[in-house]
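Journal club side-thread
Mid-discussion, someone asked how the predicted structure for our own chain would compare to the paper's figures. Pasting it here so we can look after the session.
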Amino acid sequence: MTIGNVIDIYKKIYDLPELEYGEQVPDGFLKLYKENNYFVIVSIYNLKHEHLLIRDFNKGIGWELPGGSINLNESIENAVNRIVLKETNLEIDELSPVAIVKNIFQYGTQSIIHRGVAFMALSRGKLKSYSKNIQTHFSTEIPKKIAYQNDSILKLVRKKIDFMKYNPPFEEIDSIKDGKFFLFYLLHKYVVKYIGNFSSRKIKKVIFSLIEGRPKTILDVSCGDCPIINELCKYYNPDICIGNDISWKTITLLKKKYPEVIFTNHNVLDMPYKMKFDLVIFKNTLHHIEKMYQEKVLIDLKNLAKQLIIVDIDDPQNSSFLSKIWNNYYVYLLGDQGNTFLKFKKFKKIIETKSAGEKVTTGIIKTIKGDYFYATIKKLI
């Protein structure tokens, strides 16, 4: 999939506006930048909802947002993380597109078009040290002297920030970055996980059996490092296939990413997608959501899906001794933070109450790791 295709998909799934900018440039500019025609811009904000501004006084173009060209054979999301780390040394979460940007550069009768995506992202960490000619600061204001279309981007970002209610679950995200847990994670990934694969294959078989028709748009809400999103994409060959997770680190551990899958980084409490997907899968994540938000999440996902499939582990205290052992293994050795388990009976009641007039199927999958419950909710035409 080309970068141009990915940008078109971003525009569709997020209903992004398109910002256009034109400028007369020297002949040398066209020759230098003719090949680098895709780029990213990132409006980085902190927990105080202040956005980062950078000004290089040697350039004389005013305040800027971090950004740069996408390298050959580099994905958009990898370009964003590379550029932000290089320019700021900050870690980012909640990466979300806000606009498609088109820059038209002209010299005489010649012109080139650079096309890119503007993002917003929550930052953590400490800014790197800059040379004396570069000034940085976080602000809620948009400066008068600002480069290119960065003012338009910031206006869009400010509107979105004003409506934000939830911060990412940092404990969850950071557990995989923790050195101790990361070492255990590698042991799990290459040794212990093969034991649990009997359970995973059983769950995957049930998921595939529940899918109706041939979905042309697929979203895995919390893909983690599970390869099922790759297998769904390969089997159904959809027009749009999205793998989302709250943690970029976990996504990077997904082995052999299928090239047609686009990966995104959103909190399930605040999903920014603006289209309805033929198939939405939500697996092994409900017990990571605070109980006060569980029903909200299920309703939000139902509104995103023509067919929604939910799979989660039953309360280990309600299952076998082996299930309790597995749960302790995930909690104490892998740093798993999820502990708001539901019992199947309660889960079934919530689903049936919130899905009146829709086709609903629920059931239990018995595995070596314990009981998993599932539900599929299908919109009736």
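Post-session note: Residues 179-210 form the longest helix (32 residues).
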